[in-house]
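Summary of Year 1 activities. Much of the first year was spent building the evaluation harness for sequence design. The harness presents a backbone, in tokenized form, and records the residue chosen at every position. We chose the following record to illustrate the format because it has been used consistently in internal testing since the harness was completed.
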């Protein structure tokens, strides 16, 4: 499709970024308050869920965690303050094992949400600190593979994530409807593989087995054994009903997880931290090209999408930078429509300050 830039060769306008130095200094002070209250060393890990600028737990954070943990060493106790909607489960497993090699005692504070792979991380802590609005979620992962099904109507074409438990649910429904003999089951599988590539299906069933195994190993740290452990894993992996199901503090306690309620004074500290993080990452503001551009033909933007911070080791931030431009999109003989072109200049973690 041919597109024409609007505004010619004009220099893009530089938009103001969302964070000031004072916001980071405020977070450092709050992390110091948490360290004093918990008698521990504190690491903040945030992946943004800002609409259209979401970020997830991924393997690109491994070395950054090591850098910060080296600054925290030696540590009897580490407190991770976590805000995430999830991400790569293998990374979550590695991060928890990495954290545990740097301390004898590990706790995770759920700063509003620690979903999916974030919940998996929480299972590996000795305790989980949850406020009134903190939520966990099911740990049934979705598989993202280059051979996943296409999302209809997307341009450029996008691939749909495939939920591990959704595939298992499809097979379970078939059995409930009486599909039991080998020929009928073969027909169901043939239809399923016509919609989802067989190699993706193989990855799905391997992932389903793996996630249960990881959860079983991590729950050892909460000293949950026997039938109670199996009940927790069954619920988190399949029985919650939906990947979107949120688990509040009361439900987490009823499941049998080691949950701690913060005092009113400590809750106020966490609220201040969340307000700072939310403002810094603009969590409530959708990233909309038309809004960013306003009356300009082109703008240079810089968006913060994640935080890894300690008092001792300073701040790493996940940054996306680019240039937004208005473009004319041909409409098959009709007057051209106005579209938007996003030219990404940088995307990744950057060291933003020195402690």
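For this record, the design step produced the sequence shown next.
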């Amino acid at each position: 499709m041919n597109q024409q830039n609007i505004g010619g060769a004009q220099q893009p306008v530089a938009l103001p970024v969302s964070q000031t130095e004072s916001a980071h200094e405020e977070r450092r002070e709050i992390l110091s308050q948490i360290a004093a209250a918990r008698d521990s060393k504190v690491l903040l890990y945030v992946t943004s869920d800002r609409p259209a600028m979401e970020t997830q737990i991924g393997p690109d954070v491994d070395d950054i965690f090591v850098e910060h943990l080296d600054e925290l060493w030696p540590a009897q106790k580490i407190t991770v303050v976590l805000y995430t909607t999830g991400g790569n489960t293998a990374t979550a497993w590695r991060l928890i094992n990495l954290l545990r090699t740097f301390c004898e005692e590990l706790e995770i504070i759920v700063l509003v949400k620690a979903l999916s792979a974030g919940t998996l991380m929480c299972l590996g802590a000795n305790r989980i600190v949850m406020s009134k609005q903190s939520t966990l979620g099911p740990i049934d992962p979705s598989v993202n593979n280059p051979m996943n099904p296409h999302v209809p109507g997307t341009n450029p074409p996008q691939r749909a994530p495939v939920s591990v438990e959704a595939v298992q649910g499809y097979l379970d429904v078939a059995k409930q409807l009486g599909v039991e003999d080998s020929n009928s089951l073969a027909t169901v599988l043939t239809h399923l593989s016509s919609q989802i590539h067989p190699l993706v299906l193989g990855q799905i069933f391997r992932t389903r087995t793996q996630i249960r195994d990881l959860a079983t190993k991590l729950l050892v740290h909460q000293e949950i054994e026997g039938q109670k452990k199996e009940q927790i894993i069954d619920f988190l992996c399949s029985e919650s009903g939906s990947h979107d199901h949120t688990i509040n503090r009361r439900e987490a306690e009823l499941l049998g997880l080691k949950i701690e309620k913060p005092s009113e004074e400590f809750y106020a500290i966490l609220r201040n931290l969340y307000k700072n993080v939310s403002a810094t990452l603009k969590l409530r503001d959708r990233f909309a090209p038309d809004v960013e551009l306003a009356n300009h033909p082109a703008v240079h933007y810089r968006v913060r999408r994640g935080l890894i911070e300690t008092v001792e080791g300073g701040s790493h931030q996940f940054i996306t930078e680019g240039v937004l431009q208005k473009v004319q999109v041909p409409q098959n003989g009709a007057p051209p429509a106005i579209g938007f072109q996003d030219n990404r200049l940088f995307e990744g973690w950057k060291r933003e300050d020195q402690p």
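The longest strand covers residues 314-331. Quantitative recovery figures across the full test set are reported in Table 2.
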